[in-house]
Design goal:
Helix 10 packs across helix 11 and helix 17 packs across helix 18. The protein is globular. The chain has 375 residues and is an alpha/beta fold. The relative contact order is 0.10.
């Protein structure tokens, strides 16, 4: 771990800092190292006295040495929001995680990812369809994302693994923890053939308060989310809600009428989710470039109606297409976030997230009233 990564991790883990305060501190001081070295009075001007005190006492609040030791022990790496390896799709959502602890590897091809989620208590049909959809997606070079829980999540990971494709598990604990314990072998295979990622520090056990954040990362890292069997109140329906809020596609597999596990998907379909019977229903809707859904060495034809035009490449190294568009739109006087969103034809929340990343990269400066200009 580099010194900058260590400082970034330390500051991000200080109690009370969070994403918004982290960005404010970076805008004021420039680097995590300078934040950690700043006087308490200077910090208080930005984040208040209580959080400023926590930052000054960060050595008591954050055990960075233990985090590094556990990362080395388990072969984990840290991907910070300003790292080119940070998932571009995830960077576009509102309030993205400041960092991801990762076991395995994140690849550029993971930008073509689809999440498959559902109940922990599926029927045989639900398990079979989740595994089949995941296998069909993976065989076409599309990364399958899920949460490594029992039931549909596990079936999705298994389907991708059996097809020889990539899969990413987003977990609600540290990446050194196995939850549920019975999935130790599954976790090992996911790491070998994809990645296990988490915004939570090493050593943290799975807790129900962690899963809402884990769910929004599952949807945020994916182009679309497929729900397979989910009773009312299921966490997978929360993941679908996050996907819709993030401007991502929501898909649902219909089930047998009258079954509790069918009620969630059927409700989503009534609300406008795309009905899924085969993998082609997903591919056509997402318009994934044909190069992404041909298995290595194969000549798989694109689905009927499929858009095979690759997405536009960012105009500057290390920038997403949206970040490049925002920079191109900014004048010397700057503009308010809603004006920038209108110019770039994107949602305000999506635009604000991209502006946050550009601010962290030192490319834009924020002024009062959410007005931004080039740095």
């Amino acid at each position: 771990m580099s010194e900058r990564q260590r400082d970034w991790m330390t500051l991000a883990l200080v109690p009370g800092v969070g994403g918004t305060r982290f960005v404010r501190l970076m805008a004021r001081f420039g680097t995590p190292k300078k934040v950690l070295a700043a006087a308490e009075s200077e910090l208080a001007e930005v984040v208040g006295k209580s959080v400023a005190k926590n930052i000054r006492q960060y050595r008591d609040a954050v055990d960075a040495e233990t985090q590094e030791r556990l990362m080395r022990l388990h072969g984990a790496t840290l991907v910070t929001m300003d790292d080119p390896a940070y998932p571009a799709l995830l960077a576009e959502i509102y309030d993205p995680p400041l960092m991801l602890f990762t076991r395995g590897g994140l690849l550029e091809t993971d930008q073509y990812a689809v999440a498959i989620v559902g109940t922990r208590h599926p029927s045989h049909y639900g398990t079979a369809i989740a595994e089949q959809l995941a296998g069909d997606l993976a065989a076409r070079g599309i990364t399958v994302v899920s949460g490594m829980a029992e039931g549909i999540d596990a079936a999705a990971h298994e389907g991708a693994l059996k097809a020889g494709g990539r899969t990413i598990a987003v977990v609600g604990s540290g990446v050194d923890q196995v939850f549920p314990a019975a999935h130790a072998d599954l976790m090992r295979r996911i790491i070998a053939q994809g990645a296990v990622v988490s915004p939570f520090p090493m050593g943290m056990s799975a807790h129900k308060t962690n899963f809402p954040q884990r769910n929004r990362i599952i949807s945020g890292i994916s182009l679309g989310t497929v729900v397979v069997e989910a009773p009312p109140g299921s966490g997978s329906l929360i993941t679908a809600k996050h996907a819709a809020e993030q401007g991502r596609e929501v898909f649902a597999v219909p089930g047998e009428a009258g079954r509790p596990n069918s009620r969630g998907p059927h409700a989503l379909i009534r609300e406008g989710a795309r009905l899924v019977e085969t993998v082609e229903d997903i591919l056509v809707e997402l318009r994934i470039p044909s190069a992404a859904h041909a298995a290595p060495g194969s000549q798989t034809a694109p689905a009927e109606g499929q858009d095979t035009t690759p997405p536009p490449a960012p105009s500057a190294p290390g920038l997403t297409a949206l970040e490049a568009d925002i920079l191109a739109s900014l004048s010397a006087e700057g503009a308010f976030v809603d004006e920038i969103a209108l110019t770039c034809r994107r949602a305000v929340s999506e635009t604000l997230s991209a502006l946050t990343i550009l601010e962290l990269k030192g490319l834009v400066r924020q002024h009062s009233g959410k007005r931004f200009s080039r740095a």
